[in-house]
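Q: What structure does this chain adopt?
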Amino acid sequence: MKLYAIISLILLLSMLFIPLFSLLGQGEGYSAGLNLTTTVSTTEKAEEPASQTVPSEEKETITVMLTASDKTENMDMMSYVIGCVAAEMPAEYEKEALKAQAVASYSYALFMKNSNSDGKSDISDNPSVHQAYVSESELRTKWGNNYEKYISAIKEAVSETEGQYLTYNSQPIKPVYHALSSGRTNSAEDVWGGSIPWLVSVNSVADKLSPIYITSFEFTEKELMKLLKCKEISIGDTVTAVSGYVKKISISGTDYTGEELRSILSLRSGNFTVEHKNGIYKFTCQGYGHGVGMSQYGANEMAKNGSTYKEILSHYYPGTKIEKR
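A:
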């Protein structure tokens, strides 16, 4: 009986201790699991970036040589384009014409910036060198009470075309432009001697409606001799392009292009005729500017007739496409 009692006691103790050891084992395993989870969580946090703040997009800038101060200024590109459109095209022009000018001005600036080799300035505000630019303070003085009205129209045109530029065969172009053609634009080849496929002569008949389409300039013989640096004046043969612009004119034995005489004599256009009467040489000009690329007046007339800025640009720069940065 004693032996039976001892055996029974041993069996009872086994039943109590074995589940307890089992429970202790599970507890240790769960604790290890907690440590693993903590380790994984710590690792994930270590791989996260130190800051979740997304940096703002860097604004496009351009360095402009300001002629008046003879200093360069780095400015926001879109602010520059606004000042350029305001300087180059009348603010009263149609919205689609202003948008066409905005794309042309931005394309011109982008081309110059990409071509910058000296690293000093990308472009000049001198219109005889590159394209004009005017500051906000200058515009406030120029426009006076009309400032808010005009600047709003230009900012809207620039905003709606922001980042859009002209290309030819996928390459950015330098889209030159002028105030008013003679009824047909001039080609780059006839003005500067090099053939450029998107700067060819195109129709712009509406330019003849401009009140400043025809202008005349008169010179005495002495004035001409001084300007042309010659001892006498004799007008020889004149060769004109299909567009009507003067390709070559002989004066006192020297050949000039129409563009050269426009510069020397401060004429409005390289499309002119010469009349000599009573000692006065009269140059009668048609149009205003070199005549190459987009006619700004013509662009406005196209806009009045329902053309979009894309149609205007396509007309004056044939074969080009508009791309967006």
